[in-house]
Amino acid sequence: GNFPEFTRPKNVGSFSLDIHRNYVNDYSELRYLSMPPEASTSGSCKVNFDLKRGVSRVVEKDEESIRQKMLDDLLRWILQERKAEHKNIIDHQHPLRPLLVEFVCYRGLLTLLIETPYECQENWTILATRFQNSIYLWQLKESKKQNGSIAVQKEKSIWGFKFEQYLCASSPNGNPNPNEQVNTNAEFCCVLKTRIGGLPLLYGAEVDAVTKESQPPFLDLQNFVELKTNKHIGNEMQQAAFNRFKSMKWWAQSFIVGIPKIVVGYRDDDGIVSRLETMDVNQLRKQSTDCWKSNICMNFCLKFLKFVKECIPKDSTSNDHFLFEFDAMSRVISFRNELGETRSRNLLPSWYVESMQKSA
Description:
This protein has eight helices and 16 strands. By secondary structure, the chain is α+β, with helices and mostly antiparallel strands. Strands 2-1-9-10-5-7-6-15-16 form a nine-stranded mixed beta sheet. The protein starts with 9 loop residues before the first strand and ends with a helix.
């Protein structure tokens, strides 16, 4: 089918998570892109960044606490905006001031859905609950058992954080400081609102950096960039593999939040980045049409959201939870009532539900 209606994502707010992953209502973790001067015209240049520098001193995020917190940071932001009477997301005609959106989630979940039509290996499980007129979605991830390939993945992800340190400054006129300790907890998160096929969505997205000329508040993410590292692409086979797998992931992540450019650092196996290239997100889609089609990706995402809406009873409450499970082998999505077996608490904590039920 044709590409579904998709309105340009509007940035309706933001928050920071500090080095201890505490919620802070400010721009303290916003980072500014600071490219080497040689890259000024083309966005590309030669560099020499060692991604292994200081990696023994890394502070890693506690995945278990993220699993426990679920949507809590985003929910905190919603309560704060409801108090501030945020016109874009709160229904002022209604005495209870509910949300004006049908779905609340994080960008990672939308990216997951967009990629699903081409996913042949990874299964996924999504937990959903309905409250007032919105459905809240959260991807359940199992705690990963430590093994060789996980250790390699971990190292690569730390390299990604180190790469950001080489290109990001904490103020518009500041300089990057790659000697700083890498702390993977800190992040700056934008909250976006869009419509896919007429369904209004509210979602949080961790963002890497904004161009130096930009000043908050940001109406959209046009001036933000995504930062990525990739192994040098030296032959047609490697290029084909990139177009087949990675380009869709990169495109989905940036497209769904309206980020137009990706700065890529090409590295070797020892973590040395020798070249930077600025990529156009739209170009990723164009160069990969033999491998994946963006309309198929987005139509699936819309179809799934509609399916969730149909499956969850209108009269269910925030105590009722539902599971949507995708099996990559059979390509089937199943739906069932979740009876407390996958979680230690409700997706929506009582402090959120109670606060949303009081008139603002």
